[in-house]
Design goal:
membrane, transmembrane, NfeD-like C-terminal, partner-binding
Length: about 100
């Protein structure tokens, strides 16, 4: 029952956070928050996570939902700033 070990989720979240630092963009940040939050929920024994036997499906479902919410929240708060994206309208070789 590896999915019921809270520290495995926390360690995976920390590994994803380290990977986020190495990769540009917000690719792994939501997953890192989701993994740490899932580990915290399992450790606290909240309903559906601790008092019942934690199934892999329940843990992955909680992880997925929290990850998507965290990614959307970070994208809204820290997303692309205006003027950050450069659009090129012409080719310099056409002159």
């Amino acid at each position: 029952m590896l999915e019921s070990l809270w520290w495995v989720w926390i360690a995976a979240g920390l590994a994803l956070a380290i990977l986020e630092v190495l990769v540009p963009g917000f690719l792994f940040a939501g997953f890192a928050v989701g993994a740490v939050a899932t580990g915290a929920l399992i450790a606290l024994g909240l309903p559906g996570m601790g008092w019942l036997s934690v199934s892999l499906i329940n843990a992955l479902l909680v992880f997925a939902v929290i990850s998507v919410i965290a990614w959307l929240a970070m994208r809204a708060l820290l997303g692309v700033r205006s003027g950050q994206l450069k659009k090129i309208d012409h080719d310099i070789n056409e002159d």
